[in-house]
Design brief:
Layout: H1 3-22, H2 25-52, H3 58-71, H4 85-89, H5 94-101, H6 106-119, H7 122-132, H8 137-148, H9 151-157, H10 167-180, H11 183-196, H12 201-213, H13 217-242, H14 260-268, H15 271-278, H16 281-291, H17 309-317, H18 332-349, E1 351-353, E2 356-358, H19 361-378, H20 395-405, E3 413-415, H21 417-423, E4 429-431, H22 441-445, E5 450-454, H23 463-475, E6 478-480, E7 487-492
Parallel strand pairs: 3-4, 3-5
Antiparallel strand pairs: 1-2, 5-7, 6-7
Helix pairs in contact: 2-6, 2-7, 3-5, 3-21, 7-8, 7-10, 7-18, 8-18, 8-19, 10-11, 10-18, 11-13, 12-13
């Protein structure tokens, strides 16, 4: 035996002995919570650093204002984006969050809560890998590592606040408890998923089909009925009432029809166009983004991936203009099913040794390497984006702080996106759109008495544009306060006769 072979054999024996020590009840009790805690610290630190640097946008401001209103006993109503809070996704699960958030600084509290939601996904994933797929600790640790570095997790963590961040942990918990027959826990997790976003009902219906295939026909049927019932209620009652009969997502499917039912009929009667979209480059890139970090392992166990295909297809067929962060919240449901499918795929790829499935260390090494590579390539918190420097503040940040310190609590504000989430705890706060509203100052000032402009967020403006904008506001009774850096604050001090 050569020296190389001897070293390799010794390493494999050491690895097996080490895993044997870890394959014990204490590791299943301690390790998932330990990894979840590390993940939480990482995600919370990144999102809070971004918040400190005023790099959040419209979505966080929308949730901060809604939480503040709920905490004050006020209907969240029309928010920062001009829509009723419940009209978009019927996210009724946010209401208890609003009650609790009043006891904390709302913006940071929401970001910390989101990091906790995302991090808790490690725990049910561990249970799935260990108790359902019968993987050894080494393979389970590899999956947990891939989850902690999964780009979709990091991207939604840094894309303001989304209640959909609850979906990975809740769906993983629902899948695990459903397969082992813990019905009350299944019901709780399903309720959490449904309360986060109306269209996640499709993922829950897919879960019901999976449970039926796994032999739990009654539970599967009840899960499907509950999800379908909530989808109808959310769509026909909650969203319709909150939106005064206007459905905010019709525009996303305008290519297929100008009404909800018209869009559905258009999808059914245009199979060629549907296939063209599903096979297009954008769809291809999205699928690769989701599957590649897991070495395409979920494709080996399609049974656990197919339940989320209808929802993912709906997302691919929608035409929603991406905001600054894209739409990472749409990746949350499929993330849970991807990791379940990956766990079972590893189980099939290994060999039984004792009571557990042993996976070749080279396969696990390839997964670790692939997860790290795609994290660096696709995650917003990639080292290429220098996340360790996000906590620092520049002159513009200090100018924003100075402006906010002088802002009255009862001010009604229109502000640039960087300032919105820090001014949203009030009855009226709106986004300052530096493109559409430039030539309509009466729209900028409607219903507000303070306008805050971050000149850095108006890249197409010149100094001449800024001067003209200032003159227009002056004619409407707004005086410019002492400018600080690139931050300009205008306050209504005079009433102008119409």
């Amino acid at each position: 035996m050569s020296r190389r072979q001897s070293l390799r054999r010794n390493f494999e024996m050491w690895s097996l002995r080490f895993q044997a020590r870890l394959d014990s009840p204490w590791s299943d009790r301690v390790l998932p919570w330990l990894i979840s805690g590390v993940c939480f610290v990482l995600l919370a630190s990144l999102s809070l650093a971004q918040y400190r640097s005023f790099d959040n946008g419209l979505e966080l401001a929308r949730h901060v204002q809604a939480a503040w209103k709920i905490g004050q006993g006020i209907d969240p109503g029309v928010g920062v984006d001009g829509q009723h809070f419940l009209a978009r996704q019927a996210a009724v699960g946010f209401i208890p969050i609003g009650w609790l958030a009043r006891f904390f600084p709302i913006g940071p509290a929401l970001l910390i809560l989101q990091a906790a939601f995302l991090s808790l996904g490690v725990v049910p994933l561990w249970r799935v890998a260990r108790n359902l797929a019968n993987l050894r600790v080494g393979a389970t640790l590899t999956l947990a590592f891939a989850y902690v570095l999964f780009p979709a997790i990091h991207n939604v963590n840094l894309a303001d606040f989304h209640l959909e961040s609850l979906a990975p942990a809740a769906l993983l918990g629902a899948i695990y408890n459903g397969i082992i027959g813990r019905w009350w826990r299944l019901g709780i997790f399903v309720a959490c998923v449904l309360a986060a976003r109306a269209d996640l009902s499709l993922a829950v219906m897919g879960l019901g089909v999976l449970l039926a295939v796994e032999g739990h026909r009654k539970a599967g049927a009840l899960t499907i009925l509950a999800a379908a019932g909530w989808l109808v209620v959310a769509f026909a009652v909650v969203q319709a009432t909150a939106g005064d009969g206007v459905y905010p997502h019709v525009d996303a499917f305008a290519r297929w029809g100008d009404t909800p039912w018209g869009s559905l009929w258009g999808l059914i009667t245009s199979p060629v166009d549907v296939l063209e979209v599903l096979l297009g480059r954008e769809s291809f890139n999205r699928i690769v983004f989701l599957l590649a970090p897991l070495l395409f392992l979920p494709m080996v166990a399609p049974r656990y991936l197919l339940p989320v295909v209808p929802l993912e297809t709906l997302y691919l067929l929608s035409d929603i203009p991406p905001d600054e962060f894209g739409h990472p919240e749409q990746d949350m449901a499929i993330t849970a099913f991807l990791f379940v499918a990956a766990a079972f795929a590893l189980s099939r790829a290994g060999r039984i040794r004792g009571k557990r499935t042993l996976i070749d260390s080279r396969v696990l090494g390839a997964i670790v390497l692939t997860a790290a590579v795609f994290f660096v390539r696709d995650a917003i918190s990639s080292p290429y984006n220098r996340p360790w420097s996000w906590h620092s503040r520049d002159a513009s940040d200090l100018a924003i702080i100075s402006a906010l310190d002088d802002l009255p609590d009862d001010a009604l504000v229109r502000a640039s996106p960087s300032v919105l989430s820090h001014t949203a705890e009030r009855l009226r706060v709106f986004e300052l759109d530096t493109t559409d509203n430039l030539i309509r100052p009466e729209v900028v000032t409607a219903g507000v008495n303070v306008v805050i402009l971050d000149f850095n967020e108006a890249p197409e403006w010149t100094l001449e544009t800024l001067l003209r904008f200032t003159e227009q506001l002056d004619r409407l009774g707004f005086d410019r306060l002492q400018p600080s850096g690139d931050i300009f604050v205008f306050e209504r001090t005079r009433e102008i006769a119409s």
